[in-house]
Structure formats: C-alpha cells, structure tokens
Amino acid sequence: MLLEEGHEVICAVRDKNRFDVSNFPHEQVRIIELDFLERQSLESIPEDIDAAYYLIHSMSGSIDDFETLEELSARNFKDRLGHTRVKQVIYLSGIANDTQLSKHLSSRKNVENILGSESYHLTTLRAGIIVGSGSASFEIIRDLVEKLPIMIAPRWLETRSQPIAIRNVLEYLKGVLLNEQTFDQSFDIGGPEILTYKELLLNFAKVRKLRRIVLTIPIMTPKLSSYWLYFVTSTSYKLAVNLVNSMKVEVVCQENDLHDQLHIERIPYEEAVQMAFDKIVHQEVLSSWTDAQSSGALAKGISSLVEVPSFGCFKDMRTKVLTDESRALERVWAIGGQTGWYYANWLWVIRGFLDKLVGGVGLRRGRKSPAQISAGDSLDFWRVLYADKTDKRLLLYAEMKLPGEAWLEFHIKDKTLYQTATFRPLGLWGRIYWYSVLPFHAFIFEGMIKKIVEE
User: Number of structural domains, the chain?
Assistant: First the structure.
C-alpha cells in the first residue's frame, strides 16, 4: 500500500539475509539491519524520516521477562527517534479495556506510555485477534479446527473478542499515516462482530465446510491449556502460555468513528477467513509467524551458518545420478510441509512429536508456500539457510532439540544429486545420539534420495 502511493520505505530487520526484497522496487525500499535491544545498532535509522511504524512484540520469545525486553526495545527506539526529524510514530498495540489485564496486554499498554513523546506525535491502534495468514491467532484457530473433529476445550473459549481482518488493519495503518486528526490519540480497531472464541472456531469450521464439535470444561487449568495448545498446534510453549493468559481477558473495542473518518468498510469474520484462504490458495502469503526466530543460533544471523562445518562432524552423504534433473529439483523444492519427506514420513512425525515433548518446535510449522522457498523460512523443524534454484542448492539447519547442531543439504551438479546430512555433536551425549539414530539414517536418507530421483 505504501509503495503504491509512492512512499520510500525503510525496513528495519535483524538479518538482511532473511528478508526477500526481490518483489519490491529497489528504488523505493531500503533495508537496514539492527537489533532494537542493542541501543547502538539503532544509529542506522536515518535522521530524515517523516513517520515510523512500531510493530514489535516479543511475546513468543519469553514467558517471564518479555515485558522487560519490550520496555527496553521501546526505550531504545524512542531515544533514537529523538535524534531524527520524525513527525509521527504509529504503534500497533492490543486492546486493553478489561479491568484485569494479562502480562501481555499490560506490557502493550506500558510500551504505549513509553513511546509517548514531546518531539513527535504518537498514534496508537489497538487490535485484538487479527484474521489472516501470518497471524499467530489465526494459525492456531486453523490448526485446532482442521485437526480436531471434537474439541474438549477450557472455559476461556467463552471469552468474547472482536476479531479484525488483516486487510482492515493495513487500511487503518495506512489511513492514520501523517493524518493530523489522529495525532496524539489511541483507537481500538476491530471488525463489526463480537464473538466468543468458541464462535470463532465454529464459524471458521463453517467457512472451511467442516463439521466440528466444541465442548468446554471448567477443570482445565491455564497450564494444561497451554500444553493443549502447544501439542495440538504449531505454537511454541512460550507463546502458548502468553496466549492462554490473554485469552481469559475480553478484547472488545471501545466505540469510535475512525473507520468512518478513514472510509474503511469493516469486514465480517467469516468473509475475512475466506479472504485469508484465498491468499493461501494463490500462494500470496508474504510472511508467516512460524518464521520468527526460534533458535539462539540464529541470533548471529543466517550467514554465520551457511558454511557447513566439517571438522569434528559426522556426515551421511548419498548421491544419485539423475535422468531428469528438473524434476528432481522440483521435488527438492517441494520437500516438507504437506508434501512430507518422501520416505518413512511416520518416523518424521514421531521425531517431531518427541521434539515437542522436550520443548522443541515439532513438525507442525509446515512451510509458508508449497512451491516457493526463501532463506529464513521455517520448514517443519528446519530453518532454510540457503535456497537458490539457479545454483540448484537447498541448505537447511535443524531447529529441533538436539545435543549438537545439524544441517541437511541438497545440491545438484553434473547431473547428480548430492544429499548430505551433517551433525556436529556437543560432548559425549551428542556422539551417543548420532550412533543411536544411525540405523534409522541408513534407510530414511537412502529412501528419501531414491524417491526424489525416481522417474
């Protein structure tokens, strides 16, 4: 939207290698690399800016100290903007009208207070559940509805909320930009309906033409609810805990006329769900919440992991001569997600479940697109480090719980597919782990490469 109106957009990211800018006009988009928790890195924010969007939330990074991280991030941002010519800051927050707020919503409110300044105008938009692929809440509802014909759920499913379509959120974010009528104000934004979480699930099922039964019971504690979400859906345990605590709080808008001022037609929930799936079907999803960093190893950036080590590592390398190189490449590019891993998928599912048991990401993250892959994408319990079809190379890094580090690489050259699994063990347990799974590797990796190259 901003580019269509001729704006120059500066995107702040932690790792440039995880941001695909190829779909945008280079003359209008600039990428700067920084970490909002590192005060000095914010010096790369240019002085000559008119407005800034603050869209940072850290709820999935921690259970106990995310408020401290959000406060530090907001203070660093505000201090840096004090040395720029910015006129307006736009903050996307959460609806916080209940008398008893969760830690997550209290933190959002605290960030709003911190961002207030005499040197620029602050506009705060407060949203509840955002309906669209890429939203954690949307993907969790999708997981629950599509996987469970019968749901025995906690009583917080009777809590009311006011969901909003992602398209409406974008319209609000664009509409308040440098709009003086919205300066130094906050607005709750939501769709036209107030629904319980149970109604959200059932209406979602209706759109998907699925028959679902949802039963609520009073005995499921917040901790049990968090484990329930964690094991059934793609969410991390940290995010599940924070979401459950927030789902006990009503997120209903205080009425305002901002949608009339900006001429926004609010989209009903079921229509918003259908629009989201239209995007998914046409492979137009630009981002996914599952792509968020979930491994401490990624903190140094993808580039630090692209060079696969050899010293002190175990390797399983297999090669197959190709009769149809392009077909094999397409199969490599389609691996994971709904396609699966071509051989002994049930073993991959078990490995994903075991990973969930010890607090890992599991296998349910899937992949953003069934046909496209970019560096930085999550792919089941792997992270894409390098993906270049011209170079015919795909490199994955394991984000599952392991006593060491693991890479999986596919590379086609000279009419041959090279498939290499590399494991760098951590201490004695790492070596024990490698030898204990070695018998499985013998047929899993061999079966996988055979399926990829078969005609």
Answer: 2
Same domain, 44 and 189: yes
CA distance 81 to 120: 9
Residues 310 and 279 occupy one common structural domain: no
Helix (H) or strand (E) holding 453: helix 427-453
Beta strands in 167-324, from DSSP E residues, in sequence order: 185-189, 195-196, 213-217, 314-321
Are 194 and 268 in contact by the 8 Å Cβ rule? The answer is: no
Average pLDDT estimate for 291-306: 59
Please give the Cα distance from 210 to 3 (Å, whole number). 38
**Cβ of 436: how many Cβ atoms within 10 Å?**
9
Counting beta carbons within 10 angstroms of the beta carbon of residue 391, is it exposed (0 to 12), middle (13 to 18) or buried (19 or more)? exposed
Same domain, 272 and 329: no
The domain containing residue 421 runs over which residues? Answer: 306-453
Angle at 198 between CA 103 and CA 237, to 5 degrees: 40
Here the CATH number for the domain that contains residue 171 is 3.40.50.720
- For range 77-86, the mean pLDDT: 93
Contact, 367 vs 336, CB < 8 A? yes
Q: What is the pLDDT of residues 220-279, one digit of tens each?
A: 666 777 777 777 777 766 777 767 767 778 889 999 999 999 999 999 999 999 998 877
Q: Which segment, 223-227, 377-381, 443-447, is predicted with the most confidence on average? A: 443-447
- Mean pLDDT (whole number) for 380-401: 91
Count of beta carbons in the 10 Å neighbourhood of residue 297: 15
Q: Note whether residue 289 is domain-resident.
A: no
Window from 38-42, 47-51, 354-358, 414-418 with minimum mean pLDDT: 354-358
Does the residue 108 lie in any domain? yes
pTM of the entire predicted model:
0.75
CB-based contacts of 26, cutoff 8 Å, min separation 6 = none
Q: Give CA separation, 357 vs 152, 237, 241, 362, 363, in Å.
A: 21, 10, 16, 9, 12
Do 263 and 314 fall into the same domain? no
Pairing, β 314-321 against β 416-425: antiparallel
pLDDT for res 289: 47
pLDDT of 143 higher than 60: yes
- Domain edge (last residue) among 284, 316, 340: 284
> In this structure, what CATH number is given to the domain that contains residue 383?
3.30.530
